[in-house]
Amino acid sequence: MSKHPPDQEHIDENMMKVEVNLDDTPGEWLGYVMDKLFDAGANDVYYTPIYMKKNRPAVQLQLLCSEDRFAEMKDIVLAETTTLGIRYYPISVYRMERQIREVDTKWGPVTVKEGLLRDRVVKAAPEYEHCKALAEQHHVPLKDVYHEVWKQLK
């Protein structure tokens, strides 16, 4: 695990990247597996469409976790998918310095995560759950809430 606060620029050492090709796992299971992996402490989980031998459509499950969570991730993948094996390798992850701020919109406040490069904000991302809640509460399209946040950021 990193010895740095999560908002400071740093490199996470002792991380593991896991890959599994799944050509016979039903699509309904994939979301379930993703939730289980995140609940168990995965840093990231995603699927990529691929083609395997004989042009069989499939998905590749990839996940990132700390080395101390690897055994649990492996157990989940092997128990909850149709794979008979996994690929894994150590990896280091660079993390930008981050700061959180609140932006006021006409519908209410939204938390925004900002990425800093040499003490300068170079990217900003509104918190999805806050935007979603405002969109639902005020019966406006989610894209309008995002647009309002981005206007406030300029």
From TrEMBL:
Highest taxon of the source? Bacteria
Entry keyword set: Nickel
Kindly give the Gene3D superfamilies that the UniProt entry links to this protein.
mk0293 like domain, Transcriptional regulatory protein pf0864 domain like
Any Pfam family matching the protein: Ni_insertion
- UniProt KW Nucleotide-binding keyword: no
Q: Which InterPro entries has this protein been placed in?
A: Ni_insertion (IPR002822)
Name it.
LarC family nickel insertion protein
Q: Which organism is it from?
A: Gracilibacillus salinarum
